[in-house]
Please model this.
Amino acid sequence: MSTPAVEFRGIAMHFGDKAALRGIDLAIAEGSFVVLLGPSGGGKTTLLNILGGFLGPTAGQVLIKGADVTQVPPAKRPTTTVFQDYALFPHMSIAGNVGFGLKMRGVPKTERSARVEKALDMVGLGHTALRRIHELSGGQRQRIALARALVVEPSVLLLDEPLGALDLKLRRQMQEELKAIQKRVGTTFVHVTHDQEEAMAIADVIVVMNDGAIEDVGPPERVYLRPASRFTANFMGDNNLIEGRVARAEHGCVAVTTPLGGFDIRGDAEAGASVALSLRPEHLHTEAGGGRVALGRATVMEAGFFGTHHQCSARMDGLDTPLKLRLPQKRLVQPGEVIGLHADPGDMVLLTR
Ligand code: ATP
Model:
């Protein structure tokens, strides 16, 4: 493997007796869009600040393109940061804001103008150079902050909840733009968010963080469809966890006994171990067929129409909590109705932790 753009080795961070990070090991490939995802307090911002040099870790090393930068101050690192509040200068023109970092680095005026123009074009705001910050909308300000960070051509761009201040519609639109811009410039992006939909929409790789540790690392499809832990399964979208016990295990396949019956699932676990099966709401069906097995009968508790689908909860004998279902748009169900449920064991994910 070529030298990673970023490497964290055994990073720990303590604030007094509070451990914010506990031994983070992570390599980030050159040119990738990596999203640090997790609930509030999980340690995402602390890790980003350690990468930017705004915080020094209690233990461990940070490498950028193979060079140890652990002791290097922020201004001397090949990184720039886009903050949630953008931190733009209101009294300067847009071109002045975008060119500020280049001016500080002593880049001559003609080269500066050309680079500012290119950066503004890249974010689709080439026509606004002479305007002032207060004349811009939230989405435009966000793009200016991005242009200002990209113009100095960092090796790694750090983004701390950059879309957090935007309303939902603009946020979704900016996600697409951010992803397109990243692919165009090819710079490694490390982006912090607690929004799983945002993470899935933009990331090449999602790093799920909780309580100062990494829970899971992988492409969005893998992290969503085959989560590594109960925490990831529950944090990444809706999910049903069915508790069970391993009856037999051989050749990467385990027979799991659950209150809904026995299932043969791929995965590794010791015979006798307590495990859980993760089953997404969209993987529960009211019809049989296509390799599905019958799970039994369930009573609909609640049902809501969400346009593209119906979201329901249904109670089954033997389970303490109702199952969450996501039924097709045309499959109308009513509270109190009894339905048969089916699932493909291939959609069930074995969780051992
Ligand atoms: P959020 O999405 O809320 O920013 P996060 O995942 O980014 O959450 P961090 O901000 O990295 O989490 O915080 C991790 C833990 O470290 C939290 O428990 C937080 O209270 C603590 N922490 C962070 N910064 C400091 C600080 N300067 N002093 C003391 N404790 C801190």
